[in-house]
């Protein structure tokens, strides 16, 4: 067959279709059975598929179980706290739950590559948390009961912990996870590119309506999607701390990770690309102690295809099918369409995205955490943004003189600033700031006020207000506020 | 069962069943010889129509025309299944069986699973 002719003129001129697998149909592992699945050009039979996925899961997770890497080599696996699993009911988290149960909670025989010679579960307790997002995503309504059923189908090995997305605006929940009390109800004002926290006269809004107001104030579809994602992540991190968990596991597959990496970079999250795959998050507790949670994505070497077949062949119930509805136009959904299409013809490229991003690192580290998403804030990012952005004179501060032909009525729009507690833009990461201040496709300027803020933002701003207003600060509070500037006692 | 027809078991998973009467399993019968252009209308008596043995590409068109209840764009794209839909032929990845060119046999079990649900 010719491979370089004109297909319109010659019937046989089309190039020969390249098979999706490298050599033969025999399994590349056992080399005896006929294969059942092609994973990035390699053929595996069904019998070899299950140990392969199990091995990839353990190989990704187990080096991060012990507090330090060398401990793991000598003494087997022993975590310093409990385990929290974030369970959405979707494909990845369903497979993750099954793998955790089969690997650590069910009696089994030793397997090849087993890095836990002592056997048993490295965590004293395994808690499964599900965040009910039905107050903002109508398509997931009624799923919570079914999700509880899935968790309980494993028996008493998992403790089920239901949460709601609106807990992010609920002081009761904040107190229940050990968050410091805050007395001043605070809202967010977006005047221009500066964003201000503002003391509100009362805080009578219910968590549910505060959540809806928060979501409604986000300027774009992309901002809504990433805003919900950030709320879910931070809720899980604080819940992990409150359940004394040393590890938080999420069911992000290789495909999902590649999607979130590309999507995050395109939304300005390049500085925290490392955290997109894995992060060490510390809760700066009131008493000055840090409680660290290690967020691991143990399926980050397992693609969606493998997850799908694991779920199908193990007859697992996958509840979260809402993404199937399609039609969303935010960056995350468009990236998903692109990556899924890419994976069909070029499956190795998707893993190359994750592997390439894994090699990236930032030039300098930072101790500043974003008020909203609690990821690192690059120092000097606002100054840089001011230099490279095309901005309106209305976005400039009052000390910047506008040219005479610009007759701005009332000068700068920051007239109401005296009621504000202070700008927060410098405490936001580039991605969160861009999310809040980007203009919608209709060109609307994002000017809004009294936007409810999550409890962790309000709590941190409350501390700063107390300091600013001259209130006597308790010794523990003071230690919390100046902790970044203290030298280690050992140094 | 006539030798002119093939009896197949079709299963849908991962949310795809929602497009097919919310029914996971279907038993269907399709002609063994079909039009080469994958049109699912019956073959005329004359012999001037190009034909081929029924393959998965034809099956996809048949399912769209006879079983699918809503939103065909979520199932079929460019004469094949939409990216993100995994196909198993008798419990084996269709990529090992020639994908759409796999010639169907009587009693085959074909599974379509969507991988596009949440994580």
From TrEMBL, chain A:
One function term, GO molecular function aspect: tRNA binding
Ligase recorded as keyword: no
The keyword Cytoplasm appears for this protein: yes
SUPFAM superfamilies: Adenine nucleotide alpha hydrolases-like
Keywords noted in UniProt: Cytoplasm, tRNA processing
Pathway per the UniProt entry: tRNA modification; 5-methoxycarbonylmethyl-2-thiouridine-tRNA biosynthesis
Main location: cytoplasm
UniProt-listed InterPro entries: CTU2 (IPR019407), Rossmann-like_a/b/a_fold (IPR014729)
GO terms under cellular component: cytosol
One record GO biological process: tRNA wobble position uridine thiolation
Cellular compartments annotated: Cytoplasm
Family under the similarity heading: Belongs to the CTU2/NCS2 family.
Protein role: Plays a central role in 2-thiolation of mcm(5)S(2)U at tRNA wobble positions of tRNA(Lys), tRNA(Glu) and tRNA(Gln). May act by forming a heterodimer with NCS6 that ligates sulfur from thiocarboxylated URM1 onto the uridine of tRNAs at wobble position. Prior mcm(5) tRNA modification by the elongator complex is required for 2-thiolation. May also be involved in protein urmylation.
PANTHER family, alphabetized: CYTOPLASMIC TRNA 2-THIOLATION PROTEIN 2
Protein name: Cytoplasmic tRNA 2-thiolation protein 2
Lineage: Eukaryota, Fungi, Dikarya, Basidiomycota, Agaricomycotina
TrEMBL record, chain B:
Pfam entry (one): Urm1
Gene3D superfamilies listed in its UniProt record: 3.10.20.30
Post-translational modifications: C-terminal thiocarboxylation occurs in 2 steps, it is first acyl-adenylated (-COAMP) via the hesA/moeB/thiF part of UBA4, then thiocarboxylated (-COSH) via the rhodanese domain of UBA4.
GO BP, sorted A to Z: protein urmylation; tRNA thio-modification; tRNA wobble uridine modification
Pathway terms, separated by semicolons: tRNA modification; 5-methoxycarbonylmethyl-2-thiouridine-tRNA biosynthesis
Crosslinked positions (Glycyl lysine isopeptide (Gly-Lys) (interchain with K-? in acceptor proteins)): 119
Keywords, sorted A to Z: Cytoplasm, Isopeptide bond, tRNA processing, Ubl conjugation pathway
Localization (cell): Cytoplasm
Modified residues (1-thioglycine): 119
Major location category of this protein: cytoplasm
One Gene Ontology CC term in the entry: cytosol
InterPro entries named among the record's database cross-references: Beta-grasp_dom_sf, Mopterin_synth/thiamin_S_b, Urm1
Similarity annotation: Belongs to the URM1 family.
Chain's role: Acts as a sulfur carrier required for 2-thiolation of mcm(5)S(2)U at tRNA wobble positions of cytosolic tRNA(Lys), tRNA(Glu) and tRNA(Gln). Serves as sulfur donor in tRNA 2-thiolation reaction by being thiocarboxylated (-COSH) at its C-terminus by the MOCS3 homolog UBA4. The sulfur is then transferred to tRNA to form 2-thiolation of mcm(5)S(2)U. Prior mcm(5) tRNA modification by the elongator complex is required for 2-thiolation. Also acts as a ubiquitin-like protein (UBL) that is covalently conjugated via an isopeptide bond to lysine residues of target proteins such as AHP1.
Annotated protein name in UniProt: Ubiquitin-related modifier 1
Lineage: Eukaryota, Fungi, Dikarya, Basidiomycota, Agaricomycotina
């Amino acid at each position: 067959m010719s491979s370089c002719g004109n297909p319109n003129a010659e019937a046989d001129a089309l190039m020969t279709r390249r098979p999706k697998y490298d050599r033969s149909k025999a399994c590349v592992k056992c080399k005896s059975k006929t294969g059942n699945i092609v994973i990035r050009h390699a053929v595996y039979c069904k019998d070899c598929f299950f140990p392969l996925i199990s091995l990839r899961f353990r190989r990704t997770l187990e080096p991060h179980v012990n507090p330090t890497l060398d401990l793991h080599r000598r003494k087997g696996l022993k975590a310093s706290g409990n385990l929290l699993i974030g369970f959405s009911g979707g494909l990845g988290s369903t497979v993750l739950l099954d793998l955790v149960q089969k690997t650590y909670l069910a009696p089994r025989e030793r397997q090849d590559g087993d890095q836990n010679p002592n056997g048993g579960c490295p965590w004293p307790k395994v808690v499964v948390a599900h965040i009910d997002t039905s107050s903002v995503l109508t398509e997931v309504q009624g799923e919570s009961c079914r999700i509880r059923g899935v968790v309980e189908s494993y028996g008493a090995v998992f403790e089920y912990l239901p949460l709601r997305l609106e807990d992010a605006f609920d002081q009761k929940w904040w107190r229940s996870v050990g968050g410091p009390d805050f007395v001043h109800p605070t809202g967010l004002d977006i005047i221009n590119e500066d964003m201000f926290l503002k003391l509100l006269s009362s805080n009578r809004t219910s968590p549910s309506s505060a959540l809806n107001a928060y979501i409604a104030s986000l300027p774009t579809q992309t901002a809504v999607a990433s805003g919900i994602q950030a709320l879910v992540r931070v809720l899980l991190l604080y819940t992990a701390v409150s359940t004394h968990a040393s590890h938080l596991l999420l069911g992000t597959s290789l495909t999902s990770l590649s999607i979130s990496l590309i999507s995050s970079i395109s939304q300005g999250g390049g500085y925290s690309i490392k955290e997109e795959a894995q992060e060490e998050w510390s809760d700066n507790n009131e008493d000055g102690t840090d409680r660290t949670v290690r967020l691991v994505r143990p399926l980050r070497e397992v693609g969606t295809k493998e997850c799908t077949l694991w779920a199908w062949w193990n007859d697992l119930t996958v509840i979260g099918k809402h993404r199937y509805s399609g039609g969303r136009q935010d960056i995350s959904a468009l990236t998903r369409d692109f990556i899924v299409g890419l994976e069909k013809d070029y499956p190795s490229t998707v893993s190359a995205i994750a592997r390439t991003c894994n090699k990236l690192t930032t030039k300098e580290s930072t101790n500043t955490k974003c008020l909203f998403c609690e990821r690192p804030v690059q120092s000097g990012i606002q100054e840089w943004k001011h230099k490279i952005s095309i901005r309106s004179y209305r976005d400039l501060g009052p000390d910047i003189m506008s040219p005479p032909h610009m007759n701005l009525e009332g000068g700068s729009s920051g007239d109401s600033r005296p009621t504000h507690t202070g700008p927060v833009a410098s405490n936001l990461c580039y991605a969160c700031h861009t999310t809040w201040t980007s203009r919608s496709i209709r060109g609307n300027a994002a000017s809004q006020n009294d936007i409810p803020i999550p409890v962790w933002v309000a709590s941190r701003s409350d501390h700063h207000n107390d300091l600013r207003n001259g209130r006597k600060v308790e010794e523990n509070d003071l230690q919390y506020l100046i902790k970044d500037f203290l030298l280690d006692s050992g140094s | 069962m006539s030798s002119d027809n093939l009896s197949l078991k079709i299963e849908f998973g991962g949310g795809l069943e929602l497009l097919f009467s919310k029914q996971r399993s279907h038993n269907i019968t399709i002609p063994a010889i079909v039009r080469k252009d994958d049109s699912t209308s019956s073959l005329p008596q004359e012999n001037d129509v190009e034909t081929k043995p029924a393959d998965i590409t034809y099956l996809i068109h048949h399912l769209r025309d006879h079983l699918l209840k809503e939103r065909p764009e979520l199932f079929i794209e460019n004469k094949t299944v939409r990216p993100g839909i995994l196909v198993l032929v008798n419990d084996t990845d269709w990529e090992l069986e020639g994908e759409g060119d796999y010639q169907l046999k009587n009693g085959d079990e074909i599974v379509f699973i969507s991988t596009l649900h949440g994580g």
